[in-house]
Amino acid sequence: MRANIWCNLPEHLVERILTRLPVACFFRFRSVCKGWYNLIHSSTFLQAYSESPAQEPWFLMFTDDHYRDGSTFDPSLNKWHHIPLPSLPQKETFFPAAAAGGLVCFGCYADGWKTFVVCNPLTKACRQLPPMLNPPFRLYTVGMVVDRDTKSYKVLVAGNCEIYEVYDSAINCWKKTCILPPGFYRWHHGILCNGFLYSRRFQFDGLVAYDIQQGVWSQIQAPMPHAFDYHALVECQGRIFTVGGLLKNDITKRVCILELERTRLEWIEVDTMPSILCEEFLKDGASFSCTGYSDLVMLYITGGFRDRLVLLYDLSKKLWRRLPRCSLPDERMREGLLDGISFEPRLDAVV
């Protein structure tokens, strides 16, 4: 009866209401009627959806070395969803490399990093990008930026031999850009902040920044604290944070959150994991990994068993919380969480 009442409401009113729902609820309610099921293809619904507030990031986590199985954590519902993973080409292994505006970019190493695929994990739409002009054999960083107005996006890839190329979906091709500064750190996800793509640099223990509009690299010499084990860069409300651990005898003793102080170019400790929680999280001397987007960071033990603690940290509220156990069956969680990437879930993101 209630479903019939909803279905008889004016279409524009239904669309406006549904755009305000958490993404997971929208998919569940699509089963109400055929009209609601087809909303994801409706231009008026997607236009209304594009004007709705941004959702909290989701965490797409993988549980096998081939990146074919995994689960997604939804902070707004405090729940894991086993959504089908993107239908990537089967012959090779694709790694999550970057995310922006509801899209995730996967890269594949086969005779160099020449193959990249961009997909929307919610709609399952995928696009394999044309081969890079000069594929690198070593990948340093990958970044991504989405233009919400034009629905176009750019993928920025930096690799060895000063290789740096940008893919532009508007013209469907790669372009080689300016020479890279030397001394990139090992591979990690780049972050976008105030029009710059930031990546880690090891030679001067600082950062490199790429101005997306000007196409110019710059170096930021901002030394990390002594014995700090870096794990990830995260952007939150126009500020840059790093998450890592303080080492003693090569063992992590504390998990810390540092913020880049722009004026003095110093990393300032702004929070630390409570000691009791840290002891439980790092028991048996385990090392951890993390992935973050916007103001949320997930911390997990790489390859830890199913019962290992998984945490979520809110940068804006300075809150730590334990996450529920992953909902995958036991036989698919024997190796725990191996790798992952965080992204903003968006139904209107176009590949």
TrEMBL record:
Domain of life assignment: Eukaryota
InterPro entries in UniProt: F-box-assoc_dom_typ3, F-box-like_dom_sf, F-box_dom, Kelch-typ_b-propeller, SCF_F-box_component
Coiled-coil stretches: none
PROSITE patterns in the cross-refs: FBOX
Residues in F-box domain copies: 3-49
UniProt protein name: F-box domain-containing protein
